Amino acid sequence: MEEAFAQVVLSATIAVVVALVARSRGWGIALPLIAVGALVDWLPFGPDAPPEPEFVLVVILAPLVFGEALGSSYLDLRRVQKPVLVLAIGLVIGTTFAVGAVGTLLTAIPLAMACALGAILAPTDAVAVSTVARRAGLPRRLVSILEGESLVNDGTGLTALTVALAAAAAGTVTIAEVSWIFVEAVVVGVGIGAIGGWILSLVLRRSNDLMAANALVLIAPFLLYAIAENLDGSGILALVVAALVIAHTQNSDPGHTGRLQGTTVWKQVTFVLQAIAFFFVGLELPEVLRRLDPGEVRSVLVLVPLVIVTLIVTRALFVFGMIGLGRPVDGRDTRGMMRGGAILAWAGARGPVSGLAAFSIPVAFASGAAVPYRDEILATTFCVIVVTLLLSLTLAPLARWIGIRPDDDGDLVRRIDAQLARAALDRLGDIESEQIDAGTPLPAGLVERVEADTERRIRRDESTVEVSQTEQLQVQQVLMVAKAMVRAEQEELLRLRDEEGLPDAVVRSIMTKLDLRAQTLAAGRL
Prior knowledge:
The protein is mainly α. Helices cover 78% and strands 0% of the residues. The protein is built from 21 helices and no strands.
């Protein structure tokens, strides 16, 4: 037990240090972590990959998916729900069977295990995709589709993996049995996630102890995952739904004081788990290759390029088929849709979710029989992850070459800021009237100073409210007024989002700035 704990701690330390160095140089963390993990495995000392598949699935994958979903937006997903559902469900199922067919036709792997490989590689990686997409400067709609797909398809892919492994253990399953397993996993997973997310949101909203409430959210992924899996549901899908509910609730409450704290904590947790997952892939890859006999090595050498081609072709067929069957909306012309389709078709990087899913394949079935071709599936998965991550580096040049341009949010952000400033001025007028009625009017100099600062924002001038030493007696009044004005801006921002359908990604960025301002004021600083 102590040795296993030491192995995990050492792995985590190395992974975070490597990720820190990579980020400091402006690199992505995935490929450096895999490379260092492979190097460490060849050394005569150092940590090993965890031997227990269940440990990987529950301790790393569950909170990783939960944390990624907390950073997503239900509203932005709803705006692109059709392409997301097609890619996250239809494409995952199609990829599972396409890879399964290729694997069983060209190697000795039976169909059920080949489909297990397809289910493992069907989900795209949320971290790799979103990182590359943002660096490539893709339009917000494309980023939302890619992030939404990579978030939802985790649950679909792992559910398909469960079905494939059940078929491999039983020898055969009927279409009806497969359909029932899939439907049950989805319905139960979504139900548990919705209920769990609602309960956690209620606790966060009503608790006066934000430290304890956010601590509850930290351990919630393990509980929700266990409940969903014990009820034959998809634990991963439950986590995605719960996290989306929590994120939406938090970002719809203008006065939620724990939003910044929770966001910061989960960004750190997700970063550590991502680093560990990629490092484990690197650690395990040489070990798995060493366990293969010459015939299995030849099989892997055949599978890797064929599976990659199958993934790319299947994805392209789904994306362009979806575009061909749809109609241009929101003023987008057919040419623009085809350019966007080319990006969607090429943005299929696989990452830690596929690696951890491969880890989760048991060494033996419940009957005691060894799971066949496990090492070949792991080796193929890890090699495909590395190659697709390398291919993802070409996404930005491709976007520039075909003329994809990022959204220019400058005018939108300036308009929103001006409207928020007007809302703050309206609230200032109300406060001034209330103070006069109460017989405690605000000092004229204070009102003029705050008004001037807010009006500069409307004119797009930058300024700050400063309090001289001769006005220290007015500090508390300044803080009271400033906090009320920030609250008015938060409420106005949510009103604009709900009534005008502003992009949630833009709204969240502005809300974070308002939260920071409110936090500063709450600490007694101007």
